[in-house]
Amino acid sequence: xxxxxxxxxxxxxxxxxxxxxxxxxxxxxxxxxxxxxxxxxxxxxxxxxxxxxxxxxxxxxxxxxxxxxxxxxxxxxxxxxxxxxxxxxxxxxxxxxxxxxxxxxxxxxxxxxxxxxxxxxxxxxxxxxxxxxxxxxxxxxxxxxxxxxxxxxxxxxxxxxxxxxxxxxxxxxxxxxxxxxxxxxxxxxxxxxxxxxxxxxxxxxxxxxxxxxxxxxxxxxxxxxxxxxxxxxxxxxxxxxxxxxxxxxxxxxxxxxxxxxxxxxxxxxxxxxxxxxxxxxxxxxxxxxxxxxxxxxxxxxxxxxxxxxxxxxxxxxxxxxxxxxxxxxxxxxxxxxxxxxxxxxxxxxxxxxxxxxxxxxxxxxxxxxxxxxxxxxxxxxxxxxxxxxxxxxxxxxxxxx
Length: 401
Ligand SMILES: [Cu+2]
Prior knowledge:
The protein is built from 10 helices and 12 strands.
């Protein structure tokens, strides 16, 4: 039987195509990627990595053997015009053999797997507790009062944790199902509305550990990232002290340390207060200004901005609050130097003014969201601010250290 020439050409293309496709796929597996499960940076992730290595090697061996046998059979018995071979009905030796081998393999893997599941589910040996709330499209972290944390802390985007100890996250959601995953520190845990799910994290060394929401949660799912920032005990205590101190200034009129633009920004910020809280801010009558649920978004929340300038990213850790240089310095800092640099926060020379301005100009252009005007309020709407108002607001935001 003769084949058309085009089939030959296709056959010859097959191997190079497979190699190219394989290489492209493998490019996703760079060894030192920050979100790699093969480079654990803490105890829990290490347990998972230790567990996955053997089954992965075993699966690879099985896979190679199966494909080799398949290739051999396809080649050996390909159609050369020979008569159809006799039709057998099973071979009990092979059938029993493969069942036994599979059962033994699965049984062997089950023992350490079960042990690890129990170890990763432990919650009573964690010293610090943080409530983590997923919402479209950012994570809120609230630290309840506990040993070492004298007042509640509410922040977003960056989960700040002490190194070398178990931190227990209580993962929740305010709207749809999200999933919390910092691959270098542990496996993932879904954030399900109406449930509180425990997840333990532990980081060996100070530094930034990246993650992103891993459960499709709507329009800006891809822009819902998070970072775990680990600080050593002393730096963590300093961070807590900063976070539990209200941001100055809290009242523009009485605070003479504020420059004119920032004072104007303080006033302009009144329209932001219906969604964003700045702890310590009071109105003209001296009452605390809190985000008002009746004027708020559907999920009823926006990031707490009290210490915005202590973070290095914003809007779901998707955009940098630091200029590219300053951000790169922080990312590449040695574990010893990291803490002090992080605690500096956003200094005036390091502020990524362009992106922050762009955010205030039109947040929806930077991050697809469903503004309230569409009837499905979710995310931050375009507030149609004037350039002047944006300048003032940034001057004010810069005081929120
Ligand atoms: Cu999400």
